[in-house]
Design the sequence.
């Protein structure tokens, strides 16, 4: 799908002088926020246990719960559509727009619509979608994709944003000061207000689908979701089927871990709950369409990556990931980034093109340690590595080396021979390079690219222990 | 009364790169009152396991299990290899595989070195000066094996060194086994952030219980020309031979 591979994208990102400080700010801000929020709550670990159990129960009962959701949402006046894949979801959304004469649409932040590339599809169908989440609006103007699931423009500085607005807003007076954050927000608000008032349809995602009442629950901090979902005459929600929960009680528990894990807030500024459509004499959209998106999720449910469906998209794994902190989100090349993206992207976009994503992890385990629903992310990444190895995807040198190591390890004499030869080789290199190895041969050169290696002081431990020297 | 036996699983990195860590670990286990046995051994299989070669990992694990299963106690001077045996070995084999029970038995008797020394204390001895020590937790020790207090208590009890904490201590150093060779640029970035935090801590010595982290961080500090000594906790506690 992308011309560059992960390593090349990561290299470019790591040499982007503006990205590193932005990622550093993001990391310390979100990490501290979550740590303090967890500390403030009397027993956050127990809350995580409950949220984890609720999400697993929901995934295990998913087919039944989705049918209950459909029945209750339909009874409340909404129309529920089932989309097997991205193309079908886009086609349904476009058809709803066509049937209702929708020309202009506003959108709130939704990773599901990013996943199916809805904006590009609607544009081709003659509908102009305008993103109303500030970060999404900025990257829409720049033709980029989100680099973080909850902070889509985290890779940009306020200077970048000012440049973007100057280029995109033709009527912005050249002498108007938009160097500060509040001026930037004001400028975006002016433009977005026009879009809100002119829109025929509002498109949202959904943080949860509550089965017992057929309700869509959404969280936001900017208030734009309320307007997006209720101001236009038609509301379209695109929601992954994994977002199902059984009850309001369950939703309440998930909500309590969500914002704490994401931004460190006890609760997001807004929680929007939408059930059915408005009656003719009421305010609100007269039509409510809910597109339930599968797009590989049922297949995932049947695989050894099923636990990934418990994800509530809080972003804590990104915020605590050292790989994400080094490369940012765009290096991952997919809709989702960080550890959760490394599990999801091979599923959506293919393993052979994305085998680097599960591979580029030290298995440091910090993602699992902060995941509010305790998804064993390192284990899921490991499953992808096993799939890749079985499919012969890793480079030949790596497979050959592992095979040799396995062969050597099967018999103690072979292991002893291999380590004694290596020890001799390293000591010789150390002697040649005067006691400190600055360049190792072959793949070892990648180790010494940024480090020295002090050679061993003598023969292997096992040979010396046995006095074999 | 005969001394109880403990097997030392020395790890490939200590075996090959830092034999002195193996000798220091053996000396500590002996001081704790155990008779040290080093059964002929190879690799725990983690490189294969982490690269997706589960069958290769099983092959190596079976050899390690066969070498270790006759011992009541197995001591590993590494949270990474220790975690592989104590936490991952049982998952390598299906429930109906006879190796499953053997893996579980060995897993249940395997301790990382500082865990072992916390349970089997060293006799008191005069505390040697050790300066300002930055202690780095390996990710596998900290998060996989839940080891946090043990090494710090051991350093406080047996040296006169002062422990300084490293900022963002939970962050990985960037070693990651094959990771540092497969993704050298990201690994180097992670390592240099860690060495900067170590330098900022004011420490004059870096101590850890995993040679992977130490070869990575020690090598980076050396390349950077930082005047910070690097020691495995076994060497620090055992003292100069």
Sequence:
């Amino acid at each position: 799908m992308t011309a560059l591979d992960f390593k090349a994208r990561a290299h470019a990102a790591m040499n982007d002088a503006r990205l590193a400080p932005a990622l550093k700010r993001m990391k310390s801000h979100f990490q501290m926020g979550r740590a303090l929020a967890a500390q403030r709550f009397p027993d956050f670990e127990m809350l995580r246990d409950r949220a984890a159990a609720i999400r697993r129960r929901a995934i295990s009962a998913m087919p039944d719960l989705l049918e209950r959701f459909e029945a209750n949402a339909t009874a409340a006046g909404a129309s529920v559509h089932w989309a097997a894949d991205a193309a079908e979801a886009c086609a349904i959304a476009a058809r709803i727009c066509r049937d209702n004469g929708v020309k202009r649409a506003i959108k709130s932040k939704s990773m599901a619509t990013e996943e199916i590339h809805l904006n590009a599809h609607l544009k081709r169908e003659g509908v102009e979608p305008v993103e109303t989440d500030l970060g999404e609006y900025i990257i829409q103007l720049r033709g980029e994709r989100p680099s973080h699931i909850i902070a889509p423009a985290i890779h940009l500085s306020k200077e970048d944003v000012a440049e973007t607005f100057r280029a995109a807003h033709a009527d912005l007076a050249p002498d108007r000061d938009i160097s500060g954050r509040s001026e930037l927000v004001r400028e975006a608000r002016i433009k977005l207000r026009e879009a809100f008032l002119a829109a025929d349809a509002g498109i949202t995602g959904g943080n949860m689908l509550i089965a017992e009442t057929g309700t869509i629950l959404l969280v936001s901090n900017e208030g734009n979701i309320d307007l997006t979902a209720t101001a236009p005459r038609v509301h379209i929600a695109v929601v992954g089927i994994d977002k199902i929960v059984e009850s309001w009680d369950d939703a309440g528990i998930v909500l309590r871990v969500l914002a704490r894990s994401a931004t460190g807030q006890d609760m997001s500024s807004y929680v929007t709950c939408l059930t059915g459509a408005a009656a003719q004499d009421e305010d609100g959209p007269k039509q409510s369409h809910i597109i339930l998106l599968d797009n590989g999720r049922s297949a995932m449910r049947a695989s050894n990556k099923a636990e990934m469906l418990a994800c509530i998209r809080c972003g804590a794994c990104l915020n605590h990931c050292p790989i994400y902190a080094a490369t940012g989100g765009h290096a991952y090349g997919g809709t989702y980034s960080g550890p959760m993206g490394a599990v999801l992207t091979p599923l959506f976009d293919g393993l052979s093109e994305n085998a680097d994503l599960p591979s580029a992890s030290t298995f440091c385990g910090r993602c699992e340690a902060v995941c509010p629903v305790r998804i064993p992310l390192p284990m899921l990444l490991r499953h992808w590595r096993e799939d890749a190895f079985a499919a012969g995807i890793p480079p030949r040198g790596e497979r050959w080396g592992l095979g040799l190591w396995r062969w050597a390890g099967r018999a103690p004499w072979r292991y002893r021979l291999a380590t004694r030869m290596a020890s001799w080789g390293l000591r010789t290199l150390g002697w040649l390079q005067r006691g400190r190895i600055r360049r190792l041969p072959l793949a070892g050169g990648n180790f010494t690219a940024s480090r020295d290696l002090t050679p061993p002081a003598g023969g292997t431990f096992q040979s010396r222990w046995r006095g074999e020297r | 009364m005969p001394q109880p036996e403990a097997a030392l699983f020395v790890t490939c990195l200590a075996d090959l790169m830092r034999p002195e860590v193996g000798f220091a670990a053996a000396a500590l286990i002996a001081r704790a009152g155990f008779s040290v046995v080093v059964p002929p051994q190879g690799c725990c299989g983690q490189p294969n396991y982490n690269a997706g070669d589960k069958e290769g990992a099983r092959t190596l694990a079976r050899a390690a299990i066969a070498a270790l299963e006759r011992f009541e106690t197995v001591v590993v001077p590494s949270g990474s290899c220790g975690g592989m045996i104590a936490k991952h070995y049982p998952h390598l084999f299906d429930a109906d595989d006879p190796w499953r029970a053997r893996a579980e038995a060995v897993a249940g008797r395997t301790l990382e070195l500082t865990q072992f020394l916390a349970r089997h204390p060293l006799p008191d001895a005069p505390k040697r000066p050790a300066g300002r020590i930055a202690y780095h937790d390996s990710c596998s020790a900290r998060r996989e094996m839940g080891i946090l207090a043990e090494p710090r208590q051991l350093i406080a009890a047996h040296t006169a060194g002062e422990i300084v904490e490293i900022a963002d201590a939970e962050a990985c150093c960037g070693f990651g086994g094959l990771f540092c060779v497969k993704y050298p640029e990201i690994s180097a970035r992670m390592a240099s952030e860690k060495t900067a935090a170590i330098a900022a801590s004011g420490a004059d010595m870096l101590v850890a219980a995993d040679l992977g982290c130490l070869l990575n961080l020690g090598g980076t500090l050396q390349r950077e020309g930082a005047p910070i000594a690097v020691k495995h906790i076994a060497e620090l506690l055992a003292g100069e031979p």
Remarks:
- The first helix of chain A runs from residue 6 to 14.
